[in-house]
Amino acid sequence: MSDATPRSTPYAVSRSQEEWRQRLTPEEYHVLREAGTEAPFRGEYTDTKTAGVYACRGCGAELFRSDAKFESHCGWPSFYSPLAEDRVEYIEDRSLGMRRVEVRCASCGSHLGHVFEGEGYPTPTDQRYCINSISVTLSPDA
User: Fold this and answer.
1) Which of 56, 59, 108, 130 is catalytic?
2) pTM more than 0.85
3) Is 56 one of the annotated active-site residues of the chain?
4) pLDDT truncated to tens, each residue of the chain (142 aa)?
5) Which of 40, 42, 69, 142 has fewest C-beta within 10 Å?
6) Residues sharing a CB contact under 8 Å with residue 97, sequence separation 6 or more, in sequence order
7) CATH code at 84?
């Protein structure tokens, strides 16, 4: 679990932990609400090439477009940028004995994954948003 500090302002989508448990499967709850991680190379969107929008599984906020998705071969879906910077929030994560940047949904605070910089991927931002498939849903373009 992340040791991130909760934010001081309320989220646009706010639910009690019991409401989250009722809305989400146990696996979804563990990742989205307890900052867990799904196993690598097992998520439904790891290798998906479908065009569309990825939204938060917790609240439905649109977060990433498929045209920003790239193959990083890390075991999780990777994006080089969110739809807009206000769609996600960044929290310093010092769990597991390392310093990382956790990515959360800015609308409901659900854990999405982590963002890494400077890894040398040939993307416009040199960033890799490493996102748990279980944290998002894909709405294909019409």
Assistant:
1) 130
2) yes
3) no
4) 234 445 567 888 989 999 999 999 999 999 999 999 999 999 999 999 999 999 999 999 999 999 999 999 999 999 999 999 899 999 988 877 778 899 999 999 999 999 999 999 999 999 999 999 999 999 999 8
5) 142
6) none
7) 2.170.150.20
